[in-house]
Inverse folding.
């Protein structure tokens, strides 16, 4: 009998952000990238009162968690959190995760799980970020394969000079694929 | 490879993303159907956030400034459990709230109730080995908002919890018993199932009141439970 979800409301930024929330990895970490984007509403207007949370494996595809059957790898927080600014922008510093085991002996393409919370969202919405360089792995990924082909590109980040861009469209043209978990 | 599987919550437990009574959902709820994401390794693991997140007085919102905040001092306590009744231990619980006059310490909150110089309305704590958490704070006030004609939010405290997996992440609001504002609040009433809605209402706890000091409310938070079965990766099972 679970407790229901409620919106974070417009004032989430007094309670949830941390100074180091956007730093999944410390500055200077080898291979660190910036992952950034804008959250848009159904009118294409940036959403200034939302927050992105990310959860991911480390560069070797491992989690610091007791339910990782390969054993936990201590020290990788794996979690990022960033509220959007006045222009709807968020960003985190992280590393590209390694491939992660899937079902039936398959391997999942490198991916990051994302929650978006905000005013007007009574429940978080969940999506995944994939990376454009992994075309072959993405093509074989069982989750991406379950998404209508013409919408798969909403789950693939865009390469930028210092990392990647991943915009979220909550509604309307180019609506991001959201998952039920 | 075997992984835990988290049960879905019963229909009606969580609000629909599109909830016309709460106007801000109109342009923010996805219109395409959600795609089912099987629970794989990324979903059954999750951030385990512990003591490193806490500062002094984070669990006592009345002691974060030199002076005492205005309002009715209360103790809010309860347990963080999963759907099988198991305590979620040593886990981060975050809260934020309005002050006694219903005003948030936020630049966007402009309603003309005074800010309290001695109240930030932000707290954090960890659950103990039994899943218990406890905060000392001030009972928040109700406040008006512009959702509909003469709209008021019932007094509430925002809670954020993580559980042990990405699937268990939950943000909710704790309400106070018998609030006359429930009937007109579209956020409270966005929960379709009446019994589920009542699980957001705390219980007045006379036993935990502190004489000449604080009233007390109990609020348990229950996250998705694990299925008895586990996900088995047949090719690894030889």
């Amino acid at each position: 009998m679970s407790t229901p979800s409620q919106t974070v409301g417009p004032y989430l930024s007094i309670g949830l952000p941390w100074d180091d929330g956007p730093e999944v990895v410390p500055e200077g970490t080898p291979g660190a990238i910036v992952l950034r984007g804008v959250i848009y509403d159904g009118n294409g207007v940036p959403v200034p009162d939302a927050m992105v949370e990310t959860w991911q494996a480390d560069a070797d595809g491992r989690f610091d968690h007791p339910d990782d059957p390969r054993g936990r790898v201590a020290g990788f927080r794996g979690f990022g959190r960033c509220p959007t600014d006045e222009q709807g922008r968020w960003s985190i510093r992280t590393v590209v995760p390694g491939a992660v085991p899937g079902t039936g002996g398959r391997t999942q393409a490198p991916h990051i799980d994302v929650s978006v919370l905000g005013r007007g969202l009574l429940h978080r919405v969940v999506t995944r970020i994939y990376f454009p360089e992994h075309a072959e792995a993405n093509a074989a990924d069982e989750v991406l394969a379950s998404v209508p082909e013409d919408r798969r590109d909403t789950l693939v980040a865009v390469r930028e000079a210092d990392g990647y861009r991943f915009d979220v469209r909550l509604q309307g043209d180019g609506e991001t694929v959201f998952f039920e978990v | 490879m075997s992984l835990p599987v988290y049960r879905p919550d019963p229909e009606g437990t969580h609000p629909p993303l599109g909830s016309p009574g709460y106007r801000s959902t109109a342009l923010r709820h996805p219109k395409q159907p959600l795609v089912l994401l099987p629970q794989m390794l990324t979903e059954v693991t999750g951030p385990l956030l512990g003591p490193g997140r806490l500062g002094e007085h984070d669990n006592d919102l009345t002691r974060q400034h030199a002076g005492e905040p205005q309002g009715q001092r209360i103790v809010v306590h309860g347990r963080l459990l999963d759907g099988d009744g198991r305590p979620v231990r040593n886990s981060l619980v975050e809260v934020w709230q309005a002050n006694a006059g219903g005003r948030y310490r936020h630049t966007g909150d402009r309603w003309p109730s005074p800010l309290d110089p001695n109240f930030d309305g932000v707290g954090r704590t960890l659950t103990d080995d039994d899943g218990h958490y406890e905060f000392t704070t001030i009972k928040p006030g109700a406040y008006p908002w512009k959702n509909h004609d003469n709209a008021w939010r019932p007094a509430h405290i925002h809670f954020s919890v993580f559980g042990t997996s990405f699937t268990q992440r939950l943000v909710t609001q704790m309400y106070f018993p018998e609030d006359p504002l429930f009937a007109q609040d579209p956020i409270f009433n966005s929960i379709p199932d009446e019994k589920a809605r009542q699980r957001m209402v705390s219980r007045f706890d006379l036993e935990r009141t502190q004489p000449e000091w604080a009233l007390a409310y109990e609020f348990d938070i229950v996250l998705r439970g694990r299925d008895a079965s586990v996900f088995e990766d047949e090719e690894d099972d030889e």
About this structure: The domain at 12-169 of chain A is CATH 2.60.130.10 (Protocatechuate 3,4-Dioxygenase, subunit A). Chain A touches chain B through 72 residues (CB under 8 Å). The mean pLDDT of chain A is 97.
